[in-house]
Design goal:
- This protein has 265 residues and is an alpha+beta fold.
- The protein contains six helices and ten strands.
- It has a domain of 182 residues.
- It is globular and about 55 Å long.
- Keywords: Signal.
- Pfam families: DUF3455.
Length: 265
């Protein structure tokens, strides 16, 4: 049975009313992460109404692991943001050779804020990518229905074949009222692992990405990004029957980590 985005958003609204409880973590000072980051506003600076509804404790959120785990989060980094991406993986083909392997040509995706939903109802949140992928009413790569619990965080795209860019400083267009102010930066892949065996066939690998411009890393609020819980997006095995340029729809979760900061969004 497939669930529409509208059904998911209703479930998300209900789920946020029941916080998910886990054991508190404390640092060497004895202060808990949740105390330090209490009432963190993940709705961005653009919506005071959303800010009131989307404050949450992210200290206890645990990132899912693949059977062959990706490298751990760097020491001193903490969770900054979680988004669900819905868009396309892009490929090119040599039409003169039907047996050629499609070449990756980046990706484009809209990122939806799932931080507080994950904090309050992780089981539901970890199904978001699957639901987003299955809902064919969603227009990719730019438009995803949102409400006060799932605001658009920003956009993901490539500036060249090896540079993944995450722009989480965005303003709504037309009738959209969302606004995010979470920072932005260029990233490079440093590690990959296959999606779990229970993922749908043709799901792209899970990834860890690091900031590409280390000299400018301190200007970005996040320095490491994990792509996990991927659904779809993998290219066919050969170029037979394909066009010179083509796209494969996908969805995934993106987990952003960075150095703790005194100010919060």
């Amino acid at each position: 049975m497939l669930f529409s985005i509208a059904t998911l958003l209703l479930a998300a609204g209900l789920a946020t009313a029941v916080p998910f409880q886990q054991e508190e973590r404390r640092d060497a000072t004895g202060l808990s992460d949740s105390w330090r980051r209490k009432n963190h506003n993940w709705a961005g600076r653009g919506s005071s109404r959303a800010a009131a509804q989307c404050s949450c404790d992210i200290a206890s959120i645990q990132m899912p692991q693949a059977p062959k785990p990706l490298p751990p989060v760097s020491e001193g980094f903490s969770l900054y943001h979680i988004a669900v991406g819905r868009g396309t993986q892009n490929y090119t083909c040599d039409l003169s050779n039907a047996t050629a392997i499609p070449a990756a040509a980046g990706a484009v995706a809209t990122l939806v804020n799932a931080t507080c939903l994950t904090a309050n109802s992780p089981i539901l949140a970890w199904s978001l990518a699957g639901w987003a992928y299955q809902d064919k009413s969603v227009k990719v790569p730019k438009t995803i229905p949102v409400n006060d619990f799932l605001k658009i965080s920003g956009h993901h795209f490539f500036t060249d074949l090896t540079t993944a860019y995450f722009n989480l400083d965005t303003i709504g267009e037309g009738d959209d009222t969302w606004q995010s102010n979470y920072s932005q930066g260029a990233f490079k892949k440093i590690n990959a692992t296959d999606a779990p065996a229970n993922a749908i066939e043709g799901s792209v690998p899970w990834l860890k990405l690091n900031s590409k411009n280390e000299a400018d890393a301190d200007d970005c609020a996040f320095q490491e990004v994990y792509r996990i819980n991927t659904v779809g997006g993998a290219a066919p095995k050969t170029c037979e029957g394909q066009e010179a340029e083509f796209q494969i729809e996908y969805a995934a979760e993106y987990w952003f980590y960075g150095k703790p900061r005194a100010s919060s969004y």
